Description:
The complex is a heterodimer.
Chain A: H1 14-25, H2 32-38, E1 42-52, E2 55-61, H3 66-75, E3 78-82, H4 87-99, E4 104-108, E5 127-135, E6 138-142, E7 150-152, H5 154-161, E8 173-178, H6 186-201, H7 209-221, H8 223-244, H9 254-268, H10 271-300, H11 305-331
Antiparallel strand pairs in A: 1-2, 3-8, 4-5, 4-8, 5-6, 6-7
Helix pairs in contact in A: 1-2, 2-9, 3-6, 6-11, 7-11, 8-10, 9-10, 10-11
Chain B: E1 20-25, E2 31-36, H1 40-65, H2 71-78, H3 83-90, H4 94-100, H5 103-106, H6 111-121, H7 125-129
Antiparallel strand pairs in B: 1-2
Helix pairs in contact in B: 1-2, 3-4
Protein name (chain A): DUF4872 domain-containing protein
Pfam family, one (chain A): DUF4872
Amino acid sequence: MSEISFSHVQTAHCESGVISNLFRHYGLSISEPMAFGIGAGIFFGHLPFVKVNGVPGTTYRIWPGAIFQRVCERLGVKMQSQKFSSPEKAQQELDRVIAQGIPVGVLSSVYYLPYFPPSYRFHFNAHNLVIYGKNGENYRVSDPIMDTVTEIDPASLSEARFAKGFPEPKGKMYYPVTMPADISLQKPIKQGIEQACHYMLKIPVPMFGVKGMRFLAKRLKHYPEKVGDRRATLYLGNVIRMQEEIGTGGAGFRFMYAAFLQEAAGVLQQPELSKLSLELTGIGDLWRNFAFHAGRVCKSRAADNISYNELGDMLIQCAAAEEVFFKKLSKVQL
Amino acid sequence: MKQNEVPQDGNNLHDGTFKQLFYAVDDAGKYTPVSSVGWEPENVAMEQAWEEVHARVEKARQRVLAGELSPVGYYMEKNLMDLTLLASYVGKFQWQVKRHMNPRVFNRLSDNMLHKYAAAFKITIQDLKHIK
């Protein structure tokens, strides 16, 4: 089989990480925070009716796939992306492409990845990783959230690519077909920032953006009386996990976005963005403070309304800070 | 978050075999990736999520032993699935899967159907019929 030399760098988030790793292979060097920022990955949403194992969903980033699609569009990268009707066809096509020396991104469920840390193996279907070759039967894997490259057996890979549930990966695989010779990051950065501000401030639905934080705050205050102590800690635990689990870079992607703004300040020669990066770092620390206290409430299990009330207030504080922040960001002349 | 504030709270959930990446600022105020073995609040939330899973599995196990639930219900919990997910794995409607959780209905299932469940749970038909 062909040997592809693939340089693997561990990243915080799988989607922006795969973009960064895959593009670097073609000589297009963009950092993970840069990919995250251009793709306007930062977001907030609280969806009480979308329940995962009976617990309402909270997200700190845009929906899966959006970052990828936006980055490709803004940088002018053409991707070949395919889904398959059967695992056999999917494997054949994967074999054919990697035999040509092309590393391939695949969508998978983490539940079926044997190398994944066991405690993270829930049925989460939107994980991205890169297959860059074969070693005998096994596939060589560059999984952006792992610190080194690894291998996976064909059966597990097939299961992971054809997991059921939502969203169904259906064996989705993708690889770049044309890369622009030279790119300018200026316009993509501007578009990314503009879009992020729009999503955080202007969506006319109470569940999304800054409004979504207030929405969650209001509901969170009433968790103990609404769903009982036990479920209240589970609900709260999920808010923490979505904020601090692998893939977020800490503080629900806020630090990653701050890193992007810092880098963007250099590219655009716009010191204002540096200042805003600093401000967002402060907001990230607010989020961490919230998680810290929420963790204590979860641990003590003694849910009293006072602690939930205080946590709600902390969220409202985060919301206020982010509202100010994104308003400033939207007014920066880029 | 400063570089030296990146939490390093190990836990026994992933035996120190796994490190995740954080973005933090160094002394000069520049963002840099820093690897971390974990953070207490996340560990607490994660442990709690697994405790909930284990409690549900155990409850299902007791119900199977008491003859109130078929092994389908037990293995569903054990594989962290819900009704929607399991139904799509075996290619049935949710109400059908729900029915199969009744021990009396389960005992009359065809080999073909049992095979589908065993495949979804990645176990043998023997194990499917007799839970441990």
